[in-house]
Amino acid sequence: MNAMQNVGFSADPDAAKMTEGKPSDVGIGSTLLERIVSDPDVHQGRPCTRKGHVWVSRVLDLLAMGVPMSEVAEECKLDIDDVRACLAYAAFTLRPGRYGSEAV
Question: Would you say 92 and 98 are in contact if contact means Cβ atoms under 8 Å apart?
Fold first, then answer.
């Protein structure tokens, strides 16, 4: 496995069941999540976009401030699908049982 690796998501778009470290393809496509990477040598391993290495948190901050997706993509030099991938990553990581999250 190379240094720039996917953050534990399945590259198999037909994966239909939740398995450890892999998303269900119900609601979140694994191809979107493949756009998010983590590398200990880039941004201290913080999740970022494969294209441009923009922190997922930066994209989410802009969206939370009300910046339209198209403007976030333009400002960060990303594709709109990269912005959507950041949202998908946030949704996936906040699911109950993932990374210490709990059902609310």
Answer: yes
Q: pLDDT tens for residues 14-54?
A: 333 333 445 554 456 678 999 999 988 888 889 999 988 89
3-state secondary structure of 48: strand
Q: Residue 48 pairs with which residues in a beta bridge?
A: 37, 55
- The one-letter amino acid code at 28 reads I
- Bridge-based pairing of strands 48-49 and 36-38 is antiparallel
Round the CA-based radius of gyration of the chain to a whole number and report it.
13
**Overall pTM > 0.90:** no
Residue-wise pLDDT tens digits, 59-94? 999 999 999 999 999 999 999 999 999 999 999 888
Locate the domains of the chain by residue range: 5-14+25-93
Q: Note the helical H segments in 1-104.
A: 30-33, 56-64, 69-76, 80-93
Is CATH 3.40.720 correct for 5-14+25-93? no
